[in-house]
Amino acid sequence: MIQNTELENDIVTLSVVQVGLRAQDCSIPSELSAMSREADTTTPKGLLQILQNSARSLLKHSPSWTHVLGYSQTFPSRDRADAEFQQISWKERQKFSAETLTNVEGKINEPSALPYPNPGDPAYIVVTLLVGTAHDRPLFDRLNSRDQLHRAIEILTEISEEYLLVFELLWTPQIETDTLSEAQMHEHYGQTIPIS
User: Fold this and answer.
1) Which residues make Cβ contacts (< 8 Å) with residue 9, sequence separation at least 6?
2) For a pLDDT cut of 90, what percent of the chain falls above it?
3) In 3-state terms, what secondary structure has residue 17?
């Protein structure tokens, strides 16, 4: 009988996929908002579903991709992986001008008072997938191209429920009246690689 040691040990792999998209004619923010409102984030099945749905939405909008940042890294313990996950999440949230929708452990929060919108036309949307799994090896190499990004997202859609430990979906801007300008893209997401 073969034992699955990946599920029994304390090793965790964190994978980050960050995608910049052209904002014009891109409906992904409203799609992600709808998914987040409907998702059951209290169960492994619900987390897997929103991971798969958001990844498929990114694949559907691949013609709008402009930038990528992605890597997968293995940690020897869950404590170290959790600390890194929280640090990445916090750093990404600091880039937001506003966070107007959250669904954490089934608690949906949408502030009634929305922030004053940034002036100007939105140039970009940035979607970030933070995924923690029980894999003992990275899921993919550092992403540098459109083809690598496509394959990495496909890999995320293939993760099984038993392997998924934690998932967080982040995107900005979250509301249509907000913007992410060319200058803000360079300032906050300068480490992303242009792929258009």
Assistant:
1) 136
2) 62
3) strand
Contact between residue 156 and residue 54 where contact means Cβ atoms under 8 Å apart? no
- Using CB atoms within 10 A of its CB, is residue 165 exposed (0-12), middle (13-18) or buried (19+)? buried
Distance CA 21, CA 3 (A): 42
Summarised one tens digit per residue, pLDDT across range 50-101 is: 999 999 999 999 999 999 999 999 999 999 999 999 999 999 988 876 554 4
The sheet carrying 193-194 orders its strands as 164-172, 124-133, 12-22, 65-75, 193-194
The pTM score is 0.86
Mean pLDDT value across residues 13-26: 91
Has residue 103 got a pLDDT over 50? no
Residue with tokens 């459109």: 146
CB 20 within 8 A of CB 126: yes
DSSP 42: T
- Domain positions in the chain are 11-104+120-194
- DSSP strands (E only) in 2-155: 12-22, 65-75, 102-104, 107-109, 124-133
